[in-house]
Write a structure and sequence with these properties.
With 313 residues, the protein is an alpha+beta fold. The chain contains 10 helices and 11 strands. It folds into 2 domains: 111 residues, Phosphorylase Kinase, domain 1; 196 residues, Aminoglycoside 3'-phosphotransferase, Chain: A, domain 2 (Alpha-Beta Complex), CATH 3.90.1200. Helix 4 runs parallel beside helix 8, helix 5 crosses helix 9 and helix 9 packs antiparallel against helix 10.
């Protein structure tokens, strides 16, 4: 793996401003000139925390959009190569770590390209089988020796820590949604999450185990990407996919595969509820078609979580 020297310079903008293909070309030319002849193009589906560009046919360049997101770069450089051999499908191979330069203020990375499409139910051959594969991945991740791993905290946006970190935010969202959803039941589910502390040994978690970070090929799980919020702690945050992707038989297949206790599921419901509540609170009065569709998705997650609590207790 290659590493560049550090030459920080002022960045002419904040967040996503100033990050474009031209900047990537300058960074590559200055720090990794052996790749300066390769094409640079934005990926089709980009994220918010990072901007990602194809570098030739076999690599990508990942640039964080803010200082807190940049905390992930050295973490992933150190730990992804250690995690990869134990996992059943590929995760991003780190090829090089870049340094601030060309007006860009953060560390950045070059990774190997992983082929596949983001997970969508219509692209998956058999959702219950996919749920088992996803559960097996999480069990394999949790089984990796966590000694010396990064404890949950700011770098993981407190995923892997108790959900109580987001208590104020959750209760503000509940207040904003009064009369829009069943806030009484939702508050009870949230309180159960707070009252179910993690008592196990710290294990590896992904931290953003969501559909856009699961790649499929030929209808099956092919890779897991974006470990920027990974760390060592409570893996309950990784179970949110039980309500955001799975339902009915596939959710039960996932639950049976990971085979975790009731307290773990209570915290997982809390994590799912927190995200859906805060997102819905921002969108509930939106009028655009895209915002309305997103709001409907968050309502569905809330309803699924409340129904799951009624079913499983």
């Amino acid at each position: 793996m290659v590493s560049a020297s550090r030459t920080p310079e002022p960045f002419p903008g904040d967040g996503r401003a100033g990050i474009d293909a031209a900047l990537v070309r300058r960074l590559i030319a200055a720090q990794f000139p052996q790749w300066s002849g390769l094409t640079v193009a934005p990926v089709q589906l980009d994220g918010w925390d990072n901007r990602t560009y194809r570098l030739g046919d076999e690599m990508t360049v990942r640039l964080p959009t803010a200082e807190q997101y940049a905390l992930a770069i050295p973490k992933e450089t150190t730990w992804l190569p250690a995690l990869a051999p134990a996992l059943p499908v590929p995760i991003p191979p780190i090829v090089a770590q870049g340094a601030p330069g060309e007006g860009y203020p953060h560390d950045w990375s070059v990774r190997g390209w992983l082929d596949g499409e983001v997970a969508r139910p219509e692209r998956i051959d058999h959702l219950p089988d996919f749920a088992v594969a996803v559960g097996d991945f999480l069990l394999a991740l949790q089984s990796v020796d966590a000694t010396g791993g990064p404890a949950a905290g700011r770098h993981s946006f407190h995923r892997g820590a108790p959900p109580a970190f987001y208590d104020d935010e959750t209760r503000a969202a509940l207040a904003a949604l009064t009369g829009r959803i069943d806030t009484e039941r939702a508050a009870a589910v949230w309180q159960e999450a707070l009252d179910a502390p993690w008592r196990g040994r710290p294990v590896w978690f992904h931290g953003d185990f969501a559909v856009n970070n699961l790649l499929i090929k030929d209808g099956k799980l092919a890779a897991v990407i974006d470990f920027g919020t990974c760390g060592v702690g409570d893996p309950a945050c990784d179970l949110v996919i039980a309500w955001t992707l799975f339902a009915g038989p596939s959710r039960e297949a996932f639950r049976d595969t990971v085979d975790l206790d009731d307290a773990m599921w209570a915290r997982a419901r809390g994590w799912a509820l927190w995200k859906a509540l805060i997102c819905l609170a921002e969108l509930v009065d939106a009028e655009g078609a895209d915002d309305a569709a997103a709001a409907a998705g968050h309502r569905r997650v809330i309803e699924e979580v409340l129904a799951d609590r009624a079913l499983h207790g």
